[in-house]
Design brief:
With about 425 residues, this protein is of the alpha/beta class. The chain contains 12 helices and 27 strands. One of its GO terms (molecular function) is ATP binding.
């Protein structure tokens, strides 16, 4: 209850999501389906709820309709706990008529909304990461250190720091310097943790040095946040927080659990397929920290006469007489007879087709929702409400990024994608 009263959580709804296109062509990143039945935004919201933080703001801007609908239908709090998930979309005001220019700009424009609620701390989170964290530990460390700002950081071997924002810390975890995506080996070596901190890492590997990478998760004192945003800087990680060095006390909090930034098609694809492993790195089955989502009241799934190996199947799916290896199927997925699917993320559908719909499909020579008979698909994401006709062969192996089959199929980051609502004609070969 003490955490509830002192903390506001702010989840960033993301920009245009260009690196995750075409999955973000009709939705924002936090609304992208995950693990058969969830959406990415369910992860930070569930982490907040499980950490006794129930006052949550979600800042949104691009392609927000499906995200807003999901939040509205999913998260309902009783009136006695004072909890909410409140959506704050970019809006025109007398001071501004343009879009959010970055993470810091988005928070800056909504400070007036936050002031209406008693709070001492603001927890700022990303809406497109996969992890489980007890934010109470982060908040306790922030308070105990006397920091103005605390950054959650993950230890990364020096050999794997490419593309990450890094920080240098002393033995008390106070941040001394930042380096944004450094490439110079000498600079990277200078950011390495001290031997004393290395010994504290539970994941310490003999002979391998680590440095700390920012996770994009921040705790600000209320006053420090207002002062940090009293300027025109647009981004927290690149501008605002580095500018505070020497003016505010900045500390790191080390997180050693599983964390994945799902910012690209390849990262999204691999994170989903990892959930089909016998012992996945992210545990949806932990009763002590459940992941919440919309209860859709769908019927159980039916799998008939299939050979299956490591698959996840969402509610209300129908899969018949196929060979399925290392796949994740979303809600209302349909796979017809004779299909071979390997390393496939099939997101399912928003609705079931009626007999009238099926008759119309036949009249229009349009495939039914889902995957038709005798298809072979490997290394692919089939987005929601897509239609793959009978006898198709879709395989990303060796394919250069680009559009195929007259634009019905897109290869991005080496992953074959059938976009949301896309139609792949029967007997297509890619």
């Amino acid at each position: 209850m003490a955490t509830r009263k002192q903390v506001l959580a702010v989840i960033m709804g993301g920009g245009r999501g260009t690196r995750l296109h075409p999955l973000t062509a009709e939705r924002c990143k936090p609304a992208v389906p995950l693990a058969g039945k969830y959406r990415l935004v369910d992860i930070p919201i569930s982490n907040c709820i499980n950490s006794d933080i129930n006052r949550i703001f979600l800042l949104t801007q691009f392609n927000t309709a499906s995200l807003h609908r999901h939040i509205r239908e999913t998260y309902h709090f009783d009136p006695f706990g004072g909890g909410f998930v409140d959506i704050l979309s970019a809006e025109q005001t007398e001071k501004s008529v343009d879009w959010y220019q970055g993470t810091a700009d988005a928070v800056r424009r909504n400070l007036n909304h936050f002031r209406a609620f008693d709070h001492d701390l603001v927890l700022i989170l990303s809406g497109d990461q996969l992890y489980k964290m007890d934010f109470r530990k982060l908040i306790s460390a922030h308070i105990e250190s006397g920091a103005d700002v605390t950054l959650s950081a993950i230890p990364v071997p020096l050999s794997r720091v490419e593309g990450l924002g890094l920080m240098k810390v002393n033995d008390s975890l106070e941040i001394a310097d930042f380096a944004e995506k450094p490439k110079d080996p000498a600079v990277i070596a200078d950011l390495a943790l001290s031997p004393a901190l290395e010994k504290q890492l539970s994941a310490h590997a003999a002979g391998e040095k680590h440095c700390l990478a920012s996770m994009g998760i921040y705790v600000f004192n209320r006053k420090a946040l207002a002062e940090a945003l009293d300027n025109t800087m647009a981004d927290f990680g690149k501008e605002v927080i580095p500018s505070l060095r020497g003016r505010k006390k900045l500390c790191a909090h080390i997180f050693e659990g599983y964390w994945e930034d799902i910012g690209t098609v390849k990262a999204f694809f691999e994170a989903n397929l990892a959930l089909a492993q016998p012992l996945p790195p992210f545990n949806f089955f932990d009763p002590s920290s459940p992941v919440y989502t919309l209860d859709r009241y769908l019927p159980p799934s039916k799998i008939n006469l299939c050979t299956v190996d490591n698959i996840v199947v969402g509610d209300g799916s129908i899969v018949s007489n196929g060979v399925l290896t290392h796949c994740v199927f979303g809600i209302r997925s349909y796979v017809a007879d004779g299909c071979i699917l390997e390393d496939v993320v099939l997101m399912g559908a928003d609705y079931y087709e009626t007999p009238e719909d099926l008759a119309e499909n036949k009249q229009l020579c349009r495939p039914n929702l889902g995957v038709g008979k005798n298809c072979t698909i490997r290394g692919a994401i089939i987005d929601k409400n897509a239609r793959v006709g009978e006898g198709c062969t879709l395989d990303a192996t060796g394919k250069a990024d680009g559009r195929y089959a007259a634009g019905a199929v897109i290869v991005r980051d080496g992953v074959l994608v059938v976009p949301r609502g896309g139609i792949v004609p029967p007997n297509t070969v890619v």
